[in-house]
Design brief:
Layout (H helix, E strand, L loop, with lengths): L1 E4 L4 E4 L7 E6 L10 H19 L3 E6 L6 H10 L3 H18 L15 H13 L3 E4 L2 E4 L36 E6 L12 E3 L1 H13 L3 E7 L3 H16 L4 E7 L2 E3 L2 E2 L10 H7 L2 H9 L7 E2 L2 H15 L16 H11 L4 H16 L5 H11 L11 H15 L6 H13 L3 H13 L2 E6 L2 E6 L3
Parallel strand pairs: 3-4, 3-9, 9-10, 11-13
Antiparallel strand pairs: 1-2, 5-6, 6-7, 7-8, 11-12, 14-15
């Protein structure tokens, strides 16, 4: 298996620190607002990596943090006359619901920044003791120029860099490039050896990663927008505090763009996940994202989402056969092609082509095709379960259809029989009217040699 390492800018063979074990860290959300399509791309991408590593047989520990102490949270709290805890708790729940709606797996570990303050303070102490950080009037800063490898991840010469601190730059730094590890904050802060304050953004991930995964980890992933300053600063403070390499493989996903501009809250051009899920289901958003290679930018439009929705229909409308749990999937060429695609730096576009090939074969009654299709599709995080209706919901739809036909029809069986009779009598106007009425309530009638069955439109 090969992955593209952003640090070396090369696609490298993936070798773990411990045999068959993977320690994986992904930068999580800052919980102060709704998650948007850019977040969906990030977390679906790394959800697929997590699923695929487990599919390959690795014992994976996936850690994704929650930033619940931050300038944006504090500003929202003041604006809404709430406590920071009330704001972060509310928006974390919203984020959690959005991730569940997207069918992403929950990480094995999901630490909150405010619950890891002791570890952050300990790491800052280590950096001060090692000479890499200094206290200044209640703030603590990292000496960037003392870390000789600073800028290697972002490929930027140190003399061209500007301060990347997320908090406001103070006047008390030794060097403009130095970034904050701890900021004085007597209103919303926490006790520390340097007075009441709160952690800088970057130290949070370094401390949580060290606590839950160890000093050196296999994979650190996130959006490309985090390469500088966040990930660059993580490397500097982690390696200077721990005295060893921080991450073996840095992975970054590309942006989602609208009109060729990066989707972001600062540009006010973002679409929330909740808004999108009113028009498109989770499978459609996932297919849209996975059609493109994870490292490339992807342009959002209703046209590409509609195309993805049609692709999902093809997947879900494959001819169903009984899942054979005893089947040795590895013997089939399609399995090998899927693995070959995914082993090539998660080439999901090629992997999807294998799925659609299996759809065609399932529709031609190739015995193994449906079982293999479901197993591989679920590895990519698609929900292959057929959508169903309750008896009451189905009865409501039949009543609507019946009223449009001006007939007294009380069940789908009666409707199918009524249509069959119309077709036998070559009454095509009535047959078409039935089809249109069904379509309007989201039902599709499918004819085969065995008879007619109904399905939901998006199933």
């Amino acid at each position: 298996m090969k992955l593209h390492n952003s640090f070396t800018d090369k696609t490298e063979e993936f070798n773990t620190i411990e045999p068959n074990k993977v320690r994986m860290y992904v930068c999580g959300p800052t919980v102060y607002d709704n998650a948007h399509l850019g977040h969906a791309r990030c977390y679906i991408t790394w959800d697929v990596l997590y699923r695929y590593l487990k599919f390959k047989g690795y014992d994976v520990t996936y850690c994704r943090n929650v930033t619940d102490v931050d300038d944006k949270i504090l500003k929202k709290a003041e604006k809404e006359n709430k406590t920071p805890e009330e704001v972060s708790k509310y928006w974390y729940k919203a984020f959690e619901n959005s991730m569940k709606a997207l069918n992403t797996l929950k990480p094995d570990i999901e630490p909150f920044a405010t619950k890891t303050l002791g570890e952050m303070i300990s790491m800052v102490k280590d950096l001060i003791n090692n000479g890499y950080a200094y206290e200044s009037n209640g703030d603590v800063y990292f000496r960037v120029k003392k870390f000789k490898d600073y800028g290697m991840l972002s490929k930027q010469p140190i003399d061209q860099l500007e301060s990347g601190a997320r908090v406001e730059v103070g006047d008390l730094k030794e060097d403009p490039l130095d970034f904050a590890l701890w900021k004085k904050d007597e209103k919303f802060g926490y006790k520390s050896p340097w007075g009441v304050g709160r952690p800088g953004w970057h130290i949070e991930c370094s401390a949580m990663s060290r606590k839950y995964l160890g000093k050196t980890i296999d994979i650190h992933a996130g959006g490309a927008d985090l390469i500088f300053p966040h990930h660059e600063n993580e490397i500097a403070q982690s390696e200077c505090a721990n005295g060893c390499k921080f991450v073996n493989y840095w992975l970054h996903n590309g942006f989602v763009t609208i009109n060729n501009e990066k989707m972001s809250k600062s540009l006010n051009n973002f679409l929330t996940i909740d808004e999108l899920l009113k028009s498109y289901d989770a499978n459609t958003l996932r297919l849209f994202i996975l059609t493109n290679h994870y490292r490339m930018p992807v342009e959002f439009s209703d046209e590409v989402l509609t195309s993805a929705a049609n692709g999902v229909k093809r997947l879900l409308n494959a001819k169903v056969s009984k899942i054979d749990e005893t089947l040795d999937l590895t013997q089939y060429d399609e399995y090998k092609q899927f693995v070959e695609a995914m082993d090539d730096d998660l080439n999901t576009s090629k992997a999807l082509a294998v799925l659609f090939d299996l759809v065609n074969k399932a529709n031609k009654d190739v015995l193994y095709a449906y079982t293999l299709l479901v197993k591989l599709a679920e590895t990519l995080g698609f929900n292959m379960a057929k959508t169903t209706l309750s008896d009451e919901e189905l009865a409501e739809k039949v009543a609507v259809i019946s009223s449009k036909l001006d007939e007294n029809i009380s069940s789908m069986a009666e409707l199918i029989a009524f249509r069959k009779k119309a077709r036998e009598e070559k009454n095509w106007d009535v047959a078409d009217k039935i089809r249109f009425a069904c379509d309007e309530v989201g039902i599709v009638l499918k004819d085969s040699k065995e008879g007619t069955v109904w399905e939901l439109k998006n199933s």
